[in-house]
């Protein structure tokens, strides 16, 4: 095998991003939580298992690694994991921000490039209703600490919940306005559980488009990015979106050590538990071969 070799699936989609779920545990209990689709997590991967898969990813031309959960910052070895990210790979974390205020500086020093922070409301009562925790201020302090530490851009992930927080979009636009290091991501809720809060973001996109001075298309997922009056807003609308899947560049690893070719499928996972070297590499190739767009 050459030093780096970018793998493509049979639809010609290159795989350049690895999303590693470090745990399915979380210190919040959001009403819509899908924990990246893992419902019955067994034991979590060890530090060494995570490092082994990152090293294989580097050989296969993975350019960025996203650590997710559950809540990834509750892992006691999180700094060791970040320190072990192979040279040349950009790392980021998606976190609920509860522990970020105390950890931001150490995360940056360990080599983390940036963070996405899940924040669905700027109203303390609504935040508590959604997450079960009266801790909005911890998250806001975490965002400030991440900005100060240079974990930027800090992306705020706001999942739009119909009838709960869909009246707060303007408050969020005000919050990110004029801070070039803050990006707002408006996310369409996915139906993992029976959940009555799903709302189509088509209307929101039309509103953003009408108020925007510029609209860009990100290569990744072909997501639209709107620039309006000092605020940068990205819209994540994965459902029934063939374009989103056509430009998907991701492979996932579940916290219990399975390669997962698509977020929305549970029937094609490949366990990497107990494997290393050539065997692990061959499973990585196989997982890429098994990738196919969920919405075609
Ligand atoms: N269908 C689908 N949805 C995804 C995928 N990746 C992320 N999402 C959605 O995007 C939301 C935000 O994900 P994040 O973990 O913050 O990362 P991201 O925005 O995808 O990545 P960056 O912009 O590179 O930071 C998730 O909650 C999902 O709803 C994917 O591969 N497929
Ligand atoms: S913060 Fe994320 S992982 Fe934790 S409960 Fe909420 S949605 Fe689930
Ligand atoms: S649904 Fe599957 S194929 Fe589509 S973007 Fe998400 S992970 Fe990729």
From TrEMBL:
Keyword Cytoplasm listed: no
Residue positions annotated to bind [4Fe-4S] cluster 2 are 245, 248, 262
Q: Does the keyword Metal-binding apply?
A: yes
**Residue span, Radical SAM core domain:** 10-228
Q: Which residues bind GTP?
A: 19, 66, 94, 155, 250-252
EC numbers = 4.1.99.22
The residues that the entry says bind S-adenosyl-L-methionine are 32, 70, 118
**Free-text comment on the cofactor:** Binds 2 [4Fe-4S] clusters. Binds 1 [4Fe-4S] cluster coordinated with 3 cysteines and an exchangeable S-adenosyl-L-methionine and 1 [4Fe-4S] cluster coordinated with 3 cysteines and the GTP-derived substrate.
Sorted alphabetically, which keywords does the UniProt record give?
A: 4Fe-4S, GTP-binding, Iron, Iron-sulfur, Lyase, Metal-binding, Molybdenum cofactor biosynthesis, Nucleotide-binding, S-adenosyl-L-methionine
Any idea what this protein is called? Probable GTP 3',8-cyclase
